[in-house]
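Late entry, evening session. Most of the bench is empty. Finally got around to the prediction I had been postponing all week. Sequence below, unchanged from the version circulated by S.P.
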Amino acid sequence: MRFFTLVIAGCLVAAAAPPAKKGEFYLGADISTLNDVDKHGGVYLDDGKPGDALAIFMKHGWTCFRIRIWVDPRNGVNGLEYTTELAKRIKKAGATLMLDFHYSDWWADPQKQNRPAAWAKLDFDGLEKQTETYTAEVMKTLKAAGATPDFVQIGNEITGGVFWPDAQVKVPLSTIKVFSGDVQPITPPEPYDDAKQWDHLVRIIKAGIKGVRDATVPADHVRTIIHIDCGGDWPVTKWYFDHLTAAKVPYDIVGQSYYPNYHGTMENLRDNLRETIGRYHKDVMVVETAYPSRAGRGMSAGANKNMIWPTTPEGQKQFLTELIKTVKEAPDGRGIGVNYWHPEATFMPNGGGRGPDANSLFDATGAPMPAMGVK
């Protein structure tokens, strides 16, 4: 256990967890669909010739790869068997592996955190135990396959809790976050008992962390991440991690999502990273981000106001360059990584000629975008 809490003059003070090795920075990509894209004939070009996407990323200096895991997905993609094969591929390439537990059969995010169907009838004590058991089983499977993760997320964007409504908490209304389109404030059902709901959330997080520790040893150097969606929002970040500090949750890293159309300005992010490090003495990572290289569907005025980089290939690279610089410049060397979401989307000749979305780091032919060469 690498964490304890002191109470000094009524204030919470988190004891420092060791930072990453000096100068160590993880340029990462969530490539959760890569094996499925390959299966369906996705095209990746390296100097104009067919290549391997993972090798192309690593050739350009990308060293860390994140993959999500769902408990029982309908088509098997991102289930345990699929995840194990992709994890083995990443480790065989000599890269760093980040595992993202969603604790659901499908997407878990700020708008939904649903129990897996097989866990639907468990009481809360059973749900807590199943979280620990399942987490340990996944970790043991990956370790036996020679693919022990280096980083493990205990949940995905769990600002509002997990397993709604059982471990759902009422998030203070943000003054930074942009609410528009498919992202809206979510409130738990009434009557709401804040102490009970936080107790439930903390128990689930601790169970997930315990599952990781049960299946590994210190020599595995596995670090746990708590991931919320408050990249530019210090007040809500403080509210959240003060609760975890008070409950002595033994996590290692603060993970944030930062999409400028949702999460504020780059200056907001810079301020949040500084305050987070100063208060909790933890390493921080932006574990989800992306920026479009071309204009897409229209955004609301609120969402569009922070999209100050051109929506062009060069604008995408400018955004990512500035984001990496911002994280690297966080105090005490504790800004340790940036992870780009779903950059592996590419040209799919077997998918009706479908091309990548605007946020991808591959173009409509399968060639790397300029942002692939970001430093």
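Two things to note before I forget:
The first strand starts at residue 5 and ends at 8.
The first helix runs from residue 34 to 39.
Will write this up properly tomorrow.
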